[in-house]
Specification:
Strand order of the largest sheet: 1-6-5-2-4-3
Largest sheet: 6 strands, mixed
Oligomer: single chain
Shape: globular
Strand content: 5-15%
Distance between the termini: 58 Å
Number of strands: 6
Length: 312
């Protein structure tokens, strides 16, 4: 087990895992959650959080290295939110220190014709993480319930069936060694308005604005009701949901990072044990000694006259 994690014990946002967890079987009322709260960071505001956030990211980086080296378990992170909810920003900032070799990010958008010709989980299963890796679903298989239900793309029995399929799918992943964390980034309708207006005012962000998103905005209450139902029915002990207040981007990132760190630390991971004695290994120092002997010819490999050239 790693021994240096105690240095982070006084970090703010401790308790995020317990505060924002939706336990299996619990009832959820999203309108009773303050999207602008920051009760787990009493040290100040946005301008004060960065040193603490940096420490969390460093700790996440260290834990990911052990996960990769241990090569026994894998981690699936699901992120859902309304438009402008901060999915991209959360992924960008929380996982910015993680070695790119150890993480994959996949976004599931409108299904292709090839995907529609198969079961809805076909396109998802091929992207779940392998041993030692973290995979982030920035939008996920839950889109195939939420969008289908609110926009009435399929009959009710279709999305009702999908709840059961998803629960069974995630149970199978968990039993095979996948650690699953699911985050709903909960923003207010007023904050979404501000973010949409900011995109319109900034030409460099016009590409992120889709007029079709305004139709979804008009269905806000429907989406909230569907998310409540979905989270209640699919938050399990092996694949829990966390509802994160997301009006404050920095606080959102701090809480997600804290939950990631606490979850990975609970795995009690360790670097693989070696079956050889490091003190018995001697690295050949002949070449190194020659280069440090003070002989310019010896220090420059291009001046080496040994081998076939010397024989000639």
């Amino acid at each position: 087990m790693l021994t240096n994690f105690h240095t982070f014990r006084t970090m703010p946002a401790r308790g995020a895992l317990e505060r924002y967890l939706i336990p299996e079987g619990a009832k959820l009322s999203l309108d009773r959650i303050d999207q602008d709260e920051k009760p787990l960071f009493l040290e100040g505001g946005k301008e004060d959080h960065l040193p603490y956030f940096d420490q969390l990211r460093e700790q996440l980086q260290s834990l990911q290295k052990v996960l990769y080296a241990e090569d026994k378990r894998r981690v699936l992170v699901v992120i859902q939110a309304m438009d402008t909810g901060g999915k991209d920003g959360c992924v960008k900032h929380v996982f910015s220190r993680v070695d790119p070799q150890g993480i994959n990010v996949k976004s599931f958008k409108k299904p292709t014709q090839a995907e529609l010709a198969r079961d809805f989980l076909w396109r998802v299963h091929q992207h779940v993480p392998r041993n030692g890796k973290i995979t982030v679903f920035n939008r996920s298989h839950y889109e195939d319930v939420i969008a289908v239900r609110v926009k009435k793309i399929l009959p009710d029995e279709a999305w009702e069936r999908r709840y059961r399929h998803i629960i069974d799918f995630e149970r199978m992943l968990a039993e095979e060694g996948t650690v699953i964390l699911k985050f709903f980034l909960h923003i207010s309708k007023a904050e979404q308005k501000r973010r949409l207006e900011a995109r319109l005012e900034n030409p460099s962000k016009h590409w992120k604005f889709n007029p079709d998103d305004l139709r979804d905005r008009k269905r806000w209450e429907e989406f909230m009701h569907c998310y409540e139902d979905l989270i209640e029915r699919t938050s399990t002990s092996y694949a829990p949901w966390y509802v994160i207040p997301a009006d404050r981007k920095w606080y959102r990132n701090l809480c997600v990072a804290r939950i990631m760190v606490d979850t990975l630390e609970s795995l009690d991971m360790s670097y693989p044990k070696i079956d050889w004695d490091p003190t018995s290994i001697v690295i050949d120092g002949e070449e190194s000694g020659a280069r440090n002997s003070g002989d310019p010819a010896a220090a420059n490999p291009e001046n080496d006259q040994s081998g076939e050239d010397a024989a000639a």
